Amino acid sequence: MDGGDVATPVQKKAHEAWRVYKYYLDKTTPHSTYRWIGTFVVFLIYCLRVFSIHGFYIISYGLGIYLLNLLIGFLSPLVDPELDAASDGGGASLPTRGSDEFKPFIRRLPEFKFWYSMTKAFCIAFLMTFFSVFDVPVFWPILLCYWIVLFVLTMRRQISHMIKHKYIPFSIGKQKYSGRRSAGSRAD
């Protein structure tokens, strides 16, 4: 009997619960619309909770800062063209001229991880609203104004980076082609 591999019954149950959780999480991967609808519902529940108890604004502010950080990662390329240009240039980069080879946009934070982190953040923030120790009295309009200024400045910088390096982090569906013309429909 190996002494290092002995697991308690609690550890075995926790491991089994984690496997079941991961199984169902993996099954949600192709259903992005439903995942985002679920996250929106969690967001609404959180907002109703904060609005109804008129408190926990500092939790909301921290949540907003965290979500802004996630959004920046979601909108940023995996390899920053400015950092890649400073190095030897051997890595992948975004095309800057029409003659450059097309390289697809790869996010620094993939959509699934963005969704998962956002949903976890809302759930954790919701749970924190049940503990009065996190209800720090603050003047919430100041926090809101500061967050809006931070958001505008951050997005302005991110958008100027996108324009400078000519990348668009969104693709609206798959490109559709009209198909080939039949030989009889061509006018010769």
What's this, in brief?
One of its GO terms (biological process) is retrograde vesicle-mediated transport, Golgi to endoplasmic reticulum. With 188 residues, the chain is mostly helical. 59% of the residues lie in helices and 0% in strands.
Q: Top keywords for this entry?
A:
about 190 residues, mainly alpha, 6 helices, globular
Report on this structure.
- This protein is an all-alpha fold and 188 residues long.
- It has one domain (31-169).
- 59% of the residues lie in helices and 0% in strands.
- The chain contains 6 helices and no strands.
- It is globular, with a radius of gyration of 24 Å.
- Its main location: membrane.
Question: Structural class of the helices, strands and pairings?
Answer: mainly alpha
- Low-pLDDT stretches: none
Radius of gyration: 24 Å
Average pLDDT value? 83
Question: Main sheet?
Answer: none
How far apart, in Å, are the first and last alpha carbons? Answer: 83 Å
Name the helix and strand elements from N-terminus to C-terminus, one letter apiece.
Answer: HHHHHH
Q: Given the structure, what is the number of helices? A: 6
Domain count: 1
Roughly how much helix do the residues carry, as a percent range?
55-70%
Q: What percent of residues are in strands?
A: under 5%
Count of extended strands? 0
Judging from the principal axes of the Cα atoms, what is the shape?
globular
Topology:
Elements: H1 9-27, H2 32-53, H3 57-75, H4 81-86, H5 111-128, H6 140-165
Helix pairs in contact: 2-5, 3-5, 3-6
GO cellular component, one term: Golgi membrane
Function: Involved in the retrieval of endoplasmic reticulum membrane proteins from the early Golgi compartment.
Transmembrane segments: 33-52, 58-79, 138-155
